[in-house]
Amino acid sequence: MAKAKDRTKDRAAFMGPRLRRLRREMGMTQAVMAEDLGVSPSYIALMERNQRPMTADMLLKLAQVYDLDVASLAGNRGEEFAARFDGVMRDPLFADLELSPMDVEDVSQSYPAMAEAVIRLYTAYRDGQMALADHGDDAQDAPDPVAEARRFLSARRNSFPSIDDHGERIAGEIGDKFDGADNFEAYFRERHDLKVRRLPPDVMMGAVRRLDRHRSELVLDETLDKASRTFQLALQIAYLDMRETIDEALGEGGFTSENSERLARRALANYAAGSLMMPYRAFVKAAERRKYDVEALSRQFGASFEQICHRLTTLQKPGQEGAPFFFIRVDAAGNVSKRLDGAGFPFARHGGSCPLWSLHQAFTSPREILTQWVELPDGEKFFTIVRTVTAGGGAWGAPRVERAVALGCDEKHAHRLVYTQGTDLKSVKPTPIGVACRLCHRIDCAARAEPPIGRSVLPDDYRRTIAPFGFSDR
């Protein structure tokens, strides 16, 4: 009985910070929330400080007033938060502090804001270490616009609720007003007095979409497939009607160069186009119902395999979260052309990834979905699916590019995916991989391309190891 009371108390300890976070995410003061819920501002303040309990009636009222899922609001995220903090505290950086598990648990439960501050500082520290590893000894490298744009997206877990809300509103208006497969085209005609036309590639002169204000036309390459054509229409709507929302999101970036901001703007416009094609609430419900079956979702929403993968990385809207995913796209040479992180996967900032990851074997089995469990050197485990996708083509002789994409999630969410159904998750043996060779200290890896930073390489005058490099203990 005493243990049950302790667990109840622990859950209550996390409700205050969660309520405060919810209020801030919705951009409300305590007074505004109090008015919405029919209580006093002081009562809201007391609940946020855990000095008043979060009753069942109050939970239901929160869910009704703000259209939230009761299960996600009342669910015990304290364990997940505590696990994150515990993972930080187990870093070798803190090994000499002799922190007991009880100390760590006390801080995460009694002082969640302080624990969150430590997690943020640790994350910033890790980012700095990764950047040093990426740049090596060249500390005078010029700013990297691609890396800066990727950091902007990654820091927000590729989730922009304001864009999702705006896109959902526009998609709702279009769905209510116009029926049929060409509702985006009807929207352009009525709202912008623009006619949509399709022209041959030689007339398009290398463009797939062009807005011609003089002729009041939006012109598309006629060789685009249906999913690509719909995406280009949605993208133009984003640039025309969602510009202010995108600008507000960009305002938080603090970019150091014009190129960085333009790349981030382009990424957010693509995000907005996805929110129009796959409105957030409908997409989350469909994804859960279909157990994140990418091909089934592709058919339901008329989107490509890659577009669905993109959208799955964005499902972290507070109160309406889906499973968190990360996404990466590479070509046959291993060059990374796209990377989206909504799951906390520690991508290397530059260069390729681990050759043991099935992402690099996908080209031998075109269009076939390959599944794999992987484990990083720190013990983190992820489940991934990979498949090749094709860009371009559409006509004889038209250039096309084959790439491989990977979609993955943390092992604790893998049971929600159709790809793991029927698998004994406890008996799975993951493939040991690294973030990148320079950051991986697995000394017996035969696939290693270069030694890790901080390790001395042994001479092979008298002995050669099976692995490409031998390392001293120093």
Automatic annotation (TrEMBL):
GO terms for molecular function: DNA binding; DNA-binding transcription factor activity. Keywords: DNA-binding, Transcription, Transcription regulation. It comes from Hyphococcus luteus. This is XRE family transcriptional regulator. InterPro entries: Cro/C1-type_HTH, HTH_RamB, IrrE_HExxH, Lambda_DNA-bd_dom_sf, ScfR_C, TransReg_Diox_bact_type. PANTHER family: HTH-TYPE TRANSCRIPTIONAL REGULATOR, HTH-TYPE TRANSCRIPTIONAL REGULATOR SUTR. SUPFAM superfamilies: lambda repressor-like DNA-binding domains (SSF47413). Belongs to the short-chain fatty acyl-CoA assimilation regulator (ScfR) family. The keyword Signal does not apply. Coiled coil: none annotated. Residues 19-73 form the HTH cro/C1-type domain. It comes from the Bacteria. GO terms for cellular component: cytosol. PROSITE patterns: HTH_CROC1.
